Automatic annotation (TrEMBL), chains A, B:
It comes from the Bacteria. NCBIfam families: PRK11202.1. Residues 1-28 are annotated as: Disordered. This is TetR family transcriptional regulator. Gene3D superfamilies: Homeodomain-like, Tetracycline Repressor, domain 2. Keywords: DNA-binding. Residues 1-12 have a biased composition (Basic residues). GO terms for molecular function: DNA binding. Residues 30-91 form the HTH tetR-type domain. Signal peptide: none annotated. Residues 54-73 bind DNA. It comes from Panacagrimonas perspica. Pfam families: TetR_N.
Length: 229, 229
DNA sequence: GCCAATAATATACATCTGTATAGACAAATG
DNA sequence: CATTTGTCTATACAGATGTATATTATTGGC
């Protein structure tokens, strides 16, 4: 079924991009930037990274002529960056949810990881993008993903310090612990995303134990005053 | 300078693939599987993943006609998997040697991670391949990389158990600890790979501390009989 | 020296890519 | 109405890619 798409013709429809009367002259765009982004988003999958999408392919998916693409983006790279931005915002929402639960729930670790893994299923495409494009792809991609990860780390670090005070269980090198946790969660998420969903629960349990190891170790290091070197 | 390679013609040379007299009739191969793998290895770089290499490109690099490629591999995918295999084996050998070189002032953890991070700057790009190809590429690629990671984990796991006995410091869930360490080291490696080399040392130190957290935590968990749930 | 076997090559083709150019279409304005 | 203006589409082209087919080159054995 992946052979020839039925070549739907795009006639000027009611749901055009620019609102019916916008003061500007000229033919109204039949499609918006966001529509193109959505089309690209529909093409990325378990085995397609953004960088492998071709301009023509995206145009086909969006049902426009290849050249019309240039009206909205200079490159496919430019579209990709917009897509990463979008994914980054989605990730922030996920993190926010995780933090919210963490503040309500007692077990920060468990609830955070649960939230993350849940969203893995919901915002699947975005997570795909962040997890994949962070390792492959251009420099811009990687920096965008790094930025989001750092954001995650900072928030987590604050949480760890707060919890250490609350529980009266001081923790060594909270920033490092936060970084370790973040990277590990993402790595486990990347591993999980390729597995059938029924395995996600097991991965979640594994991850939780791993994070407990990190926290327990960080606590022990301050208790025994172990030198990190 | 990346425009037109000088099209070196390949005439049957002394260093042919098959040894001079091998009992078989017919023209001797001018190139071996390994030569092709090496050519591909020379093409992967910071921003080139195996999946983006074209057959013709590899053939060009190896100075053979495109069709000669088929004498050695069915696909570029087949070559890629062989390459992943090679990278995994080479890297495991390097790390394994590092483990045995561990001494009193340079712990197993430290020397292993040192060896690992050294590979970031190494001429051979074995590490690059495993870091990148795990998240991109076809299902087969990912499974190949997963397999290599599992090898790492297994070797590390028996080492952890051995060390626990030697140091009389039992460890909880050694398999999980091994998995956490492996994934974390690879994640940190992936983060470091894009940074200028002078930052590698700092990443190394961070990683060592992180791993100590994991080990210390796993030990503490068995000591206090903490339930993982 | 001739033959069979094997490998490497040359040529060709259909397909896909990004993009240049030119013209058709649809809106707002006069 | 015609004009202007911005967006669309059609066509075309050069380059790259995977691969099918046919040809040439080099070896060992008789």
């Amino acid at each position: 079924m992946a052979t020839k798409s039925p070549v739907r013709k795009r006639v000027s429809s009611a749901r055009d991009a620019r609102p019916p009367a916008a003061g500007a002259a000229g033919r109204r765009p039949s499609i918006s930037r966001d529509d193109l982004i959505a089309a690209a988003l529909g093409l990325v999958g378990p085995n397609r990274s953004i960088s492998t999408l071709s301009l023509r392919e995206i145009a086909r998916e969006a049902a426009i002529a290849p050249n019309s693409f240039y009206r909205h983006f200079r490159d496919t790279d430019e579209l990709a960056i917009a897509l990463i931005d979008l994914a980054g915002r989605a990730l922030r929402k996920i993190i926010g949810e995780a933090r919210h639960r963490a503040s309500v729930d007692r077990s920060v670790i468990r609830s955070s990881v649960e939230a993350f893994m849940e969203q893995l299923g919901a915002e699947e495409k975005f997570l795909h993008i962040l997890l994949r494009e962070g390792n492959t792809g251009s420099e811009a991609f990687k920096r965008a993903v790094e930025r989001e990860l750092r954001f995650f780390e900072d928030e987590l670090c604050v949480d760890l310090i707060r919890l250490a005070k609350v529980n009266n269980a001081p923790i060594a090198e909270p920033a490092l612990a936060a970084k370790a946790i973040t990277r590990l969660v993402f790595a486990m998420g990347a591993a999980a995303i390729d597995l059938p969903r029924e395995h996600h629960a097991a991965i979640l349990e594994q991850t939780v134990v791993m994070l407990r190891m990190i926290v327990a170790g960080a606590q022990r290091m301050v208790a025994e005053n172990i030198q990190p070197g």
